[in-house]
Design a protein that fits this description.
Strands 6-5-4-3-2-1-11-10-9-8-7 form an 11-stranded antiparallel beta sheet, covered by helices on one side. It has a single domain, classed as Lipoprotein localisation LolA/LolB/LppX (outer membrane lipoprotein receptor (LolB), chain A). The protein is globular. The two termini are 20 Å apart. By secondary structure, it is mainly beta. This is Outer membrane lipoprotein carrier protein LolA. It holds the Pfam family LolA.
Length: 201
Amino acid sequence: MPFAASFARALVPVALLAAPAAAQSSADLAKVGAHISAVQTMSASFVQADQRGRSAAGKLQLKRPGRVRFEYGSGDLLLVANGKTLTYVDYQVGQKSSWPLNRTPLGVLLSGSPNLKGRAQVVASNDPRVVMVRARDPAQYGSILLAFLRNPSSPGGLQLHGWTAIDAQNKRTTVRLSGVRYNVAVPETAFRYAEPKRRGK
């Protein structure tokens, strides 16, 4: 499905989204680093939407370092990182595509030893309750804009709300999280997948 596949594309090369903000940037960036360091595992529901109004929902499981699973709907579509590789699997057509995890913006969020210096900048937000950070690794060709809600009961005082990315064709993809749970049991099997079978075989 082109729309679901656009999520995977949005996590590879993306364009810049906003300009850096000066006010409180150091303190907020420190909070983001504290949040990432404190979150060893996470589970959530997600809704993905594109600029044409199309949407898809699914479940997210994350385990640092380097592992994440996005499962769309009934599980026919997956995006899985196993620590080294980010793989998009489409069981409906029997295909998959893979990229090195460290070449995607998710590499910052999933790092085992997060160091945001030179890799992330706080950007302006119209809502004081929201901290927005543009993350970019020097090895990448783009960036991703992460949105955090200020929440004293969450790790580092922040809760990951979602992100917006723009792919190489300037198409915007937005992901929003709900039902976020931190440091819960996430099995290693979540980051494995069955090889897709080509249609007709």
